[in-house]
Specification:
Blueprint: H1 3-15, H2 19-27, H3 31-38, H4 48-84, H5 88-91, H6 96-123, H7 126-143, H8 150-164, H9 167-178, H10 181-192, H11 194-215, H12 222-244, H13 257-265, H14 281-289, H15 291-319, H16 325-331, H17 333-353, H18 356-376, H19 382-391, H20 396-409, H21 413-437, H22 447-482
Length: 510
């Protein structure tokens, strides 16, 4: 019995895909398959030493610019929080309710463009399209300095959301292209952790600008300086990204022709390939019918209701503990350090133990303890309540763990971009709701919002436990299929652009 026939039967047994459709898979395979088949000469050997050397080269070229851009991605969203206590609200005459809508409108833009931008990430060169969006959001952020009313601020925030919508899914796809599943969690944790570095940097810069304005004064308002500085930094980052980051291994200037093929070979274990430009309707349908996808989406909504509130109100929340405006800027910076440590440590530990989900649950429980401290400790103990706020910065760990699992556990390029879009649409929805939970009438303690955050995180823990259980059950089922008599693995099956459900060789990361 031929290998092709045997494996057509295996695929048929799992999803009803017959021989004709299997041949279509091979004709419409991943771009890596063509590169491997067209290569001439002796086979290249990827030994352990070569693999380590190649990984270092990839890390040094990709991670620094991804970290820098992702830090700016967070900083540019939170400039609103810094501007709010350096005169923005007074200068453009907005109320507390208007400020809440400025926090939410960003995510309306993000939400409106998330699905189209994921389609474009598949169809267009991923690095060039990402660089365009980075440049565009930097220029838009600079324009905030000329805003003079609420309507103009709304428009700027909306288009910031539009252009930033490509960054997180784009980075998740780039991570899945270049890194093995055992490497993806820690690398995602590294570039996402620069949210925390941005919080440290942004708080210090905003504090310095505010102090300078008080001491020496500026020819323009301090909040305008904040927008111009962060916007111009983003434009510079976009130009660097365009120069450094390739669309895939096959056009990486900093790899030799042999290293490009080896860089593809090293991710063969992922069973995902490196990209396919063709939209496949059946993969879209599979994503929409996959209960695991909707469990991811539910977590994204529930967990980002707290995120949307805290991101936009953390300076005002700290001020409500009894600190001054300038102190709230300065005391917000250690929270970024907590986020950095928990993200890098949590995602590394999850990869080391091969238990990203269970490890991330522990960090979410730590965040819950922090918020309970804010609620339960009397207002005359501001230091303890501030310590509770720092603990809440462990909350992003499970969100990033699930984002990394989209890289690791979703195969089929159309399915992967669809799942990323669903996850981030849910993220937008939660972040739209979040700022509305913080009502001006509840200032300065915002007690109802704090209780809502605790409730959301408790529900999120239950959802994470379900995801862990369901993923483990899928692995057991695939192991049973592989053990059946007559099962044969297809040649180059890893690069046929099969989905995780189609491919019996695919093993889900827990």
């Amino acid at each position: 019995m031929s290998e092709k026939k045997d494996n057509s039967e295996v695929i048929d047994r799992e999803d009803g895909i017959g021989s004709d459709q299997f041949n279509k898979h091979k004709l419409d395979a991943d771009v890596a398959l063509t590169a491997l088949q067209n290569r001439e000469g002796p086979p290249l050997v990827l030994d352990e030493a070569t693999n380590r050397r190649l990984l270092r080269k990839i890390d040094w070229h990709l991670l620094p610019i991804m970290c820098f851009v992702y830090g700016l991605n967070f900083l540019d969203k939170t400039t609103l929080s810094y501007a709010s206590i350096t005169g923005l609200q007074q200068d453009i005459h907005i109320s507390g309710a208007d400020y809440s809508w400025l926090g939410s409108i960003f995510y309306f833009g993000y939400l409106a463009w998330e699905w189209p931008t994921n389609l474009l990430l598949q169809r267009l060169p991923i690095a060039k399209y990402s660089a365009f969006n980075i440049l565009a959001w930097g220029l838009v952020l600079c324009l905030f300095a000329v805003v003079s009313n609420f309507s103009g601020a709304l428009a700027i925030r909306f288009f910031l959301g539009v252009f930033e919508a490509a960054v997180t899914p784009g980075f998740a796809l780039i991570t899945s292209q270049w890194y093995t599943r055992r490497e993806q969690g820690s690398r995602t944790g590294i570039w996402f952790s620069f949210n925390g570095f941005a919080q440290i940097f942004g708080g210090l810069v905003a504090y310095g600008i505010a102090r300078g304005a008080d001491t020496h004064g500026y020819t323009i308002a301090a909040w305008k300086v904040i927008f111009l500085v962060t916007g111009l930094m983003t434009v510079m980052a976009g130009l660097l990204f365009l120069w450094i980051v390739p669309d895939n291994q096959l056009n990486a200037r900093w790899l030799s022709p042999e290293e490009r093929i080896l860089a593809i070979e090293r991710v063969r274990v992922n069973q995902q390939g490196i990209g396919n430009k063709h939209f496949k309707l059946y993969q879209l349908k599979e994503a929409l019918l996959d209960p695991l996808v909707w469990a991811f989406a539910f977590y994204s909504i529930v967990s980002t209701i707290p995120n949307g509130g805290i991101t936009n109100f953390f300076s005002l929340l700290i001020k409500g503990f009894g600190y001054t405006s300038e102190e709230s800027l300065l005391y917000g910076t250690p929270a970024g350090a907590v986020e950095v440590v928990t993200l890098i440590g949590g995602l590394w530990l999850g990869d080391f133990l091969n238990q990203r989900i269970l490890v991330s649950i522990v960090f979410l429980l730590i965040a819950m303890v922090g918020m309970i401290m804010i609620v339960a400790v009397p207002v005359d103990h501001p230091t303890i309540r501030l310590g509770g706020f720092y603990l809440t910065q462990a909350a992003p760990v499970p969100f990033v763990a699930l984002l990394s699992l989209i890289s690791s556990n979703v195969a089929g390029y159309t399915k992967k971009t669809t799942v990323a879009a669903i996850y981030l649409i849910a993220y937008c929805t939660g972040n739209i709701i979040g700022p509305q939970v913080f009502q001006a009438k509840d200032a300065p303690t915002y007690r109802p919002a704090e209780i809502t955050i605790i409730t959301c995180w408790a529900v999120a823990v239950i959802d994470l436990l379900y995801i862990w259980w369901h993923t483990r059950r899928l692995n057991i089922e695939k192991e049973r299929i592989r053990a059946e008599p007559g099962y044969v693995k297809l040649e180059n099956q890893e690069f046929l652009d099969l989905t995780d459900r189609e491919n019996s060789e695919f093993v889900y990361t827990l």
